Write a sequence for this structure.
């Protein structure tokens, strides 16, 4: 049985939030993301996940207000460099928050997206009322013109102007949550000389699409759940549903199956807390 102290210590080890485990190079950062499968750049309320910044610092802490800290600078740099190199994905894939997703885990997420791996899958999602008109406009622009920086994409999607800024940002988040688009580069084509370049995910990461075709929804959820629990140690079922936007009855089916296979404990407890938590056994 875990208690608050032992759980915090084990998470610190797995999150590399210890001075002796902190990461120092881009290669170590990539290895860390591949090990945990998914992580944040900085901590976010309501999301129990490791952070790249915490692994750089060797501890969990809030980013400083100033911008001359070494670890903060490296975190900002690597969150661009690693995805641009095609080594990981970085985008608003969970709860509209930007997260890193390893390439090994990405096919499982894509297998649950409801898409078929075609560049114009967004049209079907729009037809089924799973995307807004603004999201379709953005995706259509990318389909027709190829990868575009946000400054040009807004105009191509007919969402330019301050009045449309919120609608455009929400459209980008929708498309990432539905695994339709990805960040693929950085451009200096706006007033701040810094903006993301987006492209359609099926066009840029064909390997993810190919791998996803061999994963059914049950296996996809199982892989994601086990990867998550292998990182965070334990989690209540409700928190898992909220993080991944899964229905409780569907998670119950997955948990029952994994428990029967001896890969997951579904009734673990944490000393001093009420309620049951899920715990990976592999």
């Amino acid at each position: 049985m875990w208690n608050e102290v032992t759980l915090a210590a084990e998470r610190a080890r797995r999150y590399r939030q210890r001075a002796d485990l902190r990461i120092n190079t881009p290669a170590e950062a990539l290895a860390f993301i591949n090990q945990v499968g998914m992580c944040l750049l900085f901590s976010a309320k309501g999301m129990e996940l490791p952070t790249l910044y915490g692994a750089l610092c060797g501890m969990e802490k809030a980013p400083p207000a100033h911008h001359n800290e070494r670890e903060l600078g490296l975190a900002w740099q690597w969150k661009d460099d690693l995805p641009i190199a095609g080594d990981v994905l970085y985008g608003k894939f969970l709860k509209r928050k930007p997260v890193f997703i390893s390439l090994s885990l990405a096919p499982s997420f894509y297998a649950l997206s409801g898409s078929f791996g075609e560049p114009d899958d967004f049209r079907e999602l729009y037809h089924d009322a799973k995307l807004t008109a603004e999201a379709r406009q953005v995706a259509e622009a990318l389909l027709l013109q190829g990868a575009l920086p946000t400054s040009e994409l807004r105009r191509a999607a007919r969402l330019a102007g301050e009045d449309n800024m919120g609608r455009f940002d929400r459209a980008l988040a929708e498309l990432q949550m539905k695994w339709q688009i990805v960040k693929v580069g950085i451009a200096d084509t706006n007033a701040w000389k810094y903006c993301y370049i987006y492209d359609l995910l099926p066009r840029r990461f064909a390997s993810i699409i190919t791998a996803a075709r061999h994963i059914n929804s049950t296996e996809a959820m199982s892989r994601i759940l086990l990867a998550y629990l292998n990182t965070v140690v334990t989690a209540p079922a409700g928190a898992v549903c909220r993080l991944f936007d899964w229905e409780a009855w569907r998670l119950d089916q997955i948990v029952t199956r994994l428990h029967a296979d001896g890969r997951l404990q579904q009734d673990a407890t944490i000393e001093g807390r009420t309620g049951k938590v899920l715990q990976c056994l592999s």
